[in-house]
Inverse folding.
């Protein structure tokens, strides 16, 4: 095809969305104009989305899912594209997380998004708005993204999700007693699922704790590895499996030093009751 632009899905979440849209359109033999008619837009709009010049709206992505029979895959992917207040690499990470076979994460200071209750997530984002660190629209998008990421775990077969929480995650009060009590319930329920494991890295690990910042390692369906790490101002997505293997080894060392799941749940219940 003359002047058909090559797409690089690895260059960002918008490019990944556009590449998937073009691939499925090509598989069905539809032109951009034909797909546009199905979606109620022009062929030039389809072209702009495919090459990443125009971000997909949620309404557009929902229409694409209906046209291709893809459930809510495009809708979820579009949410990652539209994030305006996320650290570098995170939107692409979210798209990969939604298809990962295994998810290993370690968090410090705050309950990770995959385990947050809506009230916990909203409380954090409300205070981001109060501090001027986010707009109300950005906060709303972040809370919606938490819910979307959690819903992606309900796919069949579900991913294996292994979580290690630094003890500070449990001891940092967010939103008062009612919010934390519900959040603790959520953690205990998560630990009881057949495809999960929850451990706490206690303060007593001291210098033996191998990570000082949050880290996530994904095992993708083809068994390749990807990791994401972030500080308060920067994020880094590592796509090279060879570079991720040492991080995975360190994660296993973290698990060995952390409390067992039973001991971790016991600590959660003791902190909730104020007995520890």
């Amino acid at each position: 095809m003359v002047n058909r632009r090559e797409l690089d899905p690895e260059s960002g979440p918008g490019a990944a969305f556009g590449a998937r849209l073009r691939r499925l359109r090509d598989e069905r033999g539809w032109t951009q104009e034909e797909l546009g008619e199905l979606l109620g837009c022009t062929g030039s709009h389809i072209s702009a989305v495919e090459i990443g010049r125009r971000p997909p709206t949620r309404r557009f992505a929902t229409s694409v899912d209906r046209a291709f029979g893809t459930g809510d895959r495009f809708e979820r992917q579009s949410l990652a594209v539209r994030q305006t207040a996320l650290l570098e690499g995170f939107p692409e990470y979210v798209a990969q997380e939604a298809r990962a076979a295994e998810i290993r994460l370690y968090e410090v200071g705050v309950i990770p998004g995959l385990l947050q209750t809506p009230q916990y997530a909203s409380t954090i984002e409300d205070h981001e708005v109060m501090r001027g660190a986010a707009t109300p629209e950005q906060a709303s998008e972040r809370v919606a993204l938490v819910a979307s990421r959690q819903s992606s775990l309900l796919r069949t077969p579900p991913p294996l999700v292994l979580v290690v929480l630094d003890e500070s995650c449990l001891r940092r009060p967010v939103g008062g007693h009612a919010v934390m009590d519900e959040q603790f319930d959520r953690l205990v329920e998560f630990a009881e699922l057949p495809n999960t494991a929850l451990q706490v890295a206690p303060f007593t690990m001291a210098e033996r704790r191998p990570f000082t910042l949050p880290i996530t390692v994904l095992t993708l369906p083809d068994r390749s590895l990807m990791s994401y790490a972030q500080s308060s101002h920067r994020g880094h997505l590592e796509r090279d499996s060879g570079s991720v293997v040492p991080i995975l080894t360190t994660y296993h060392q973290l698990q060995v030093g952390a409390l067992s799941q039973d001991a971790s749940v016991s600590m959660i219940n003791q902190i909730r009751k104020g007995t520890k």
The mean pLDDT is 89. The two ends are 68 Å apart (CA to CA). Residues 199 and 263 are 8 Å apart (CA to CA).
